[in-house]
């Protein structure tokens, strides 16, 4: 008997790659006031187009979203916040992500690094998640690995002050008398 052939339905498979560029400075860690541009490239590596394709990308902590900065395939689109937003291949209908790298959806958005960051925060971390629909239902959500941006942290300065009475034999404490010579020492530790 001939082998039985069972047709297998197609299904989209969404993947994404995320990156960040500091638009304010080309080297060194990010600093308060710097503008960062995040890019998410989403590709369908399955064998049929995805519909209802969405991108969720929460703005990183300690940054402020720059309103109106979100772009989809180079054109202005709905702000990434609060998200998610609909994504599509270039020239495709909203939510449609066709198969192949040339049909990838490219989303960019910008944030400003906040002026007030706790001293123990040394990096910004951000991920994106993409998901959509296929003929057999929803695609599994795909979350990018975290994109890490080093931060120039604010110093935590701890001053200490001491006084020695040089007239009274380097005596610490006690009461100084008129005419005594006092030596003050101020130390500052950066933790």
Question: Which tags fit this structure?
Answer:
single chain, six-stranded antiparallel β-sheet, mainly beta, 0% helix, 42% strand, 191 residues, five-stranded antiparallel β-sheet
Give the integer mean of the pLDDT values.
90
Structural class by sheet pairing and helices: mainly beta
Number of helices: 0
Distance between the termini: 79 Å
N-to-C SSE series? EEEEEEEEEEEEEEEE
Task: Report the uncertain regions.
Answer: none
Report on the biggest sheet.
6 strands, antiparallel
- Beta-strand share of residues: 35-45%
Radius of gyration: 28 Å
Q: Which term fits the overall shape?
A: rod-shaped
User: How many β-strand runs?
Assistant: 16
Proportion of residues in helical segments? under 10%
Task: Present the secondary structure layout.
Layout: E1 14-22, E2 35-44, E3 51-56, E4 63-65, E5 71-72, E6 75-76, E7 85-86, E8 105-113, E9 123-126, E10 129-134, E11 137-138, E12 142-143, E13 147-150, E14 157-165, E15 171-172, E16 182-190
Antiparallel strand pairs: 1-2, 2-8, 3-7, 3-10, 4-8, 5-6, 5-8, 9-13, 10-11, 10-12, 14-15, 14-16
Structural notes for this entry:
The protein has 191 residues and is mostly beta strands. It has strands at residues 14-22, 35-44, 51-56, 63-65, 71-72, 75-76, 85-86, 105-113, 123-126, 129-134, 137-138, 142-143, 147-150, 157-165, 171-172, 182-190. Strand 10 and strand 11 form a beta hairpin. The model has no long low-confidence stretch (mean pLDDT 90).
